Amino acid sequence: MAAYVAPKPCALRGLDVFSTLTYAFHVASHLRGVHPRTCPGCGFSGKFLGFGMPPRFDAQCPECSSLERHRLFFLAAERDHLVRPEASVLHIAPEAIIQRFLQPRCKRYQTLDLFRDDVDLKEPIEKTSLADGSLDHIMCSHVLEHVDDRQALQEMFRILRSGGSLFTMVPIVEGWDATYENPSITSTQERELHFGQGDHIRYYGRDFRARLREAGFSIEEITANEPDVTKYGLQRGEKLFVCTKP
Predict the structure, then answer these.
(1) pLDDT tens figures, 108-162
(2) From CA 140, how far away is CA 71, in angstroms rounded?
(3) DSSP state, 95?
C-alpha cells in the first residue's frame, strides 16, 4: 500500500483561494436579487437588492429604497390603521422613506434629532421641549439602542396623549432572556463586534418588553410572518411594537 502523501502547503493555499473566490462570486451574484418580491410602499414588483454587511439578500427595494423594517411598518400601518388622519406625529431620527409615508397621512408631522440640521427639533430624545400629552403618535425605529432608553421611553410616555401610541422597532434577539449591555465597551470597533454596529450601546433580549411596560406602556406586537415574509421581503420574526399610553 502506498504511503499517504500530504498536499503541499501551496496546493492547500490554492484550494483556499479557489473556494474563497467561488464563495465571493456566489454572494456577488445574489446582490442584484434572488427571488421576486413586492414593495407595499411603492408598489414595485421584481427583485430587491442586497443590503448591509454582511449582506442580506432581497433586502432593499430598488424603486423606493425601503428595507425590511420599513415594509413591515407600511403593512401594519395600512392594515391596522395605526395612524389617524387627524393625528399629530413626532418622527424621531426620521428616515426619508418613512417620512414620505407618514407625512401625508397625518394632520401635523414633526421631526426630532439631536445631530441633524434638517429637523424641526434639534433635541435629545431623552429630554425634549414638547409639552405633556401633546402628541398622538411617535415613530421611533432603531433609535433606542443608541441612547439612554429608559429615560427616552419615560420622555416619550410623557409627551404622548392618553390613548396615544409609540411605534418602535429595535434589534432584538428573542433567544436571550436579558438585554446585553456593557458600559466598558466604548470604541466603535468593539461596539460593532458586540452590538452589531459602531454606534449601538446594547443588543436587546426578550426583556425589552419589560422596559416598555416599566415606562407605563401597554404593548401590542406585530410580527413578520408568512406569507408576508416571502411576498414582501421581510425579516422572519421581526417585530413592530405598538405601545399605547393608557
Answers:
(1) 999 999 999 999 999 999 999 999 999 999 999 999 999 999 999 999 999 999 9
(2) 15
(3) -
